[in-house]
Amino acid sequence: MTTSDPEPVQIREVLSVRRAVCPGSFDPVTNGHIDIVQRAASLFDEVVVAVGINKSKNRLFTAEERMEMLSQAVAHLPNVKVDGFSGLLTAFCQEHDIHAIVKGLRAVTDFDYELQMAQMNSSLADVETVFVPTSPEYSFLASSLVKEVAAFGGDVSSLVPPFVHQRLTARLKEKAAE
Ligand code: PNS
After folding, report:
1. What is the residue-averaged pLDDT of the chain?
2. Is 143 tagged catalytic?
3. What's the CA gap between 18 and 105, in Å, rounded?
4. What is the pLDDT of residue 57?
5. Active-site residue 106, yes or no?
6. 87 CA distance to ligand 1 middle (Å)
7. pTM of the model as a whole
8. How do beta strands 46-52 and 100-105 pair?
9. Cis omega (within 30 of 0) for bond into 136
10. Which percentage of the chain shows pLDDT scores above 90?
11. How do residues 115-151 score in pLDDT, each as one tens digit?
């Protein structure tokens, strides 16, 4: 090394992987979710899409089904994997050495609750929340609305991947026949 060479970069910095989590219920995954995951994948080295499997909400799809659909939806992204978590998101982050949570913000109405969660999460663990603005074409999109519109016979085929649309239609048919 000569005197004009730059300072050696710390090995730890070179080796450290920038890892983020995209958490959610994904019941089912929509094109809006995929947009956010894709953009997170371009910002971070590794992205874990974490499906919340807490039993508090009524779901149309089981955790396994939601994870299966997500895995198919992100199969084209080599640095993205899908996992499930129960309990606190911050505990999942600590277990997996994750220090960033990526959340999509659709509108200012999302912001209040998301800010509160971000602040709570950073008080619980060493994690920052990164907000990514939803692409305008998906700003109205929510899994709950997709399910409601589909249940009443509305066309949601442009809002979810084709294989999700098929499974959604089939599941709603099964439910209607119960
Ligand atoms: O898609 P959703 O339903 O908006 O996802 C919400 C989710 C799963 C990201 C959120 O409920 C969550 O993080 N749950 C895990 C429990 C937890 O950590 N709660 C404290 C949040 S400050």
Report:
1. 93
2. yes
3. 21
4. 65
5. yes
6. 9
7. 0.91
8. unpaired
9. no
10. 84
11. 999 999 999 999 999 999 999 999 999 999 999 999 9
User: Identity (one letter) of the amino acid at 132?
Assistant: V
Interatomic CA distance for residues 14 and 64, integer angstroms: 36
* Ligand 1: nearest atom to the Cα of 87: 16
> How far does the centroid of ligand 1 lie from the alpha carbon of residue 4, in Å?
50
Q: What is the DSSP string of the chain?
A: --TTSPPPPPHHHHH---EEEEEE--TT--HHHHHHHHHHHHHSSEEEEEEE--TTS--SS-HHHHHHHHHHHTTT-TTEEEEEE-S-HHHHHHHTT--EEEEEE-SHHHHHHHHHHHHHHHHHSS-EEEEEEPPGGGTT--HHHHHHHHHTT---TTTS-HHHHHHHHHHHHHHHH-
